[in-house]
């Protein structure tokens, strides 16, 4: 069961720790949200689960109770020390590294070809949610992600064409995942209360996920950074070699030459992508385990 606001405050005081805004430290204090996250994750016994920012361990404890092998990444030294004194002592299935999730997006979770499929369950530090998610997409694709996010980020991830929220991250994510926006979550479910709205979302890996090379991603980002300009003229000038051929294919398929980035559908972007059974590894994963604090 999560701690009440008073119990959380007492624990933080006993650790000599004040919640750090920059690290997005809004701790879960609502049992229903913890239960809902676990329910949505549908964790099968001993399957690998990644958690980003275990904090005081509220969500971690519930994940561990399912029998999952938990791989977590936490940046805050004091919170890591607390977890070492508590959950890590009592759970052999808890592997924690003290690190920035932007250096190690999946912690020590095995994700090479042939490893067990894994899931991610996390109440994310909102400031790093998008760059972290992009790194996950470049590293290895989890079967499912259950993520607590700032509502604004969830709206961008799930945005449809012809809406102002559509951006490059919407294309990258929707090409690989079905997004189910599940619950708006009240600020009362956290201590301290965040000033932004939160949403719990579930993302399921598509049967044939599409991914993009870093060159194509950079091209898509450039196009969205000039979203008011017509795609055709942007592609004529762009340094990406396949740009012109791509836009001409779209026009041959009936797209107007005056179209702008946010007006075209996912299938059109996916003509720039690739599919393959095993996602390519890249150099984002930090395999230096010297900060491993597991037992
Ligand atoms: N999981 C806990 C819960 O639900 O109560 C805490 C969630 S809190 C929203 C975010 C957590 O992420 C904090 O513990 C914070 O220290 C950690 N964190 C923030 N930035 C991080 C980063 N770049 N890498 C790893 N952990 C980070």
From the 3D coordinates, which CATH architecture of the largest domain would you assign? 3-Layer(aba) Sandwich
Main beta-sheet strand count, sense and barrel state: 7 strands, mixed
Mean pLDDT: 92
**CATH superfamily of the largest domain, called what?**
Vaccinia Virus protein VP39
- Structural class estimated from helices and strands: alpha/beta
The helix-strand sequence is HEHEHEHHEEHEHHEEEHHHH
Strand content: 15-25%
Report the helical percentage: 25-40%
Order of neighbouring strands in the sheet with most strands: 4-3-2-5-6-9-7
Unreliable residue stretches:
281-295
How would you describe the shape? elongated
Distance between the termini: 24 Å
Q: Quick one: CATH class of the largest domain?
A: Alpha Beta
The total domain count is 2
The name of the CATH topology of the largest domain is: Rossmann fold
- Number of continuous helical runs: 12
Total number of beta strands: 9
Bound compounds: S-adenosylmethionine
Report the C-alpha radius of gyration, rounded: 20 Å
């Amino acid at each position: 069961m999560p701690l009440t606001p008073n119990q959380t405050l007492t624990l933080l005081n006993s650790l000599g720790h004040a919640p750090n805004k920059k690290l997005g430290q809004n701790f879960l204090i609502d049992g229903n949200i913890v239960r809902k996250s676990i329910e949505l994750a549908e964790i099968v016994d001993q399957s690998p689960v990644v958690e980003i920012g275990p904090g005081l361990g509220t969500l971690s404890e519930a994940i561990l109770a399912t029998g999952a092998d938990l791989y977590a990444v936490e940046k805050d030294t004091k919170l890591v020390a607390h977890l070492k004194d508590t959950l890590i002592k009592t759970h052999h299935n808890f592997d924690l590294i003290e690190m920035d999730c932007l250096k190690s997006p999946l912690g020590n979770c095995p994700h090479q070809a042939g490893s067990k499929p894994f899931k991610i369950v996390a109440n994310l530090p909102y400031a790093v949610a998008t760059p972290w998610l992009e790194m996950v997409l470049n590293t290895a694709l989890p079967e499912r992600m259950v993520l607590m996010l700032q509502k604004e980020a969830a709206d961008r991830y799930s945005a449809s064409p012809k809406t102002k929220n559509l951006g490059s991250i919407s294309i990258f994510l929707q090409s690989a995942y079905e997004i189910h926006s599940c619950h708006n979550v009240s600020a009362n479910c956290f201590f301290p209360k965040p000033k932004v709205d939160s949403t719990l979302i579930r993302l399921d890996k598509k049967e044939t996920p599409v991914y993009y090379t870093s060159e194509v991603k950079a091209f898509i980002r450039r196009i969205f950074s000039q979203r008011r300009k017509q795609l055709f003229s942007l592609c004529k000038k762009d340094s990406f070699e396949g740009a012109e051929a791509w836009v001409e294919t779209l026009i041959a398929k009936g797209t107007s030459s005056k179209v702008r980035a946010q007006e075209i559908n996912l299938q059109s972007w996916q003509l720039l992508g690739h599919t393959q059974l095993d996602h390519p590894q890249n150099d984002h994963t930090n395999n230096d385990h010297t900060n491993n604090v597991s037992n």
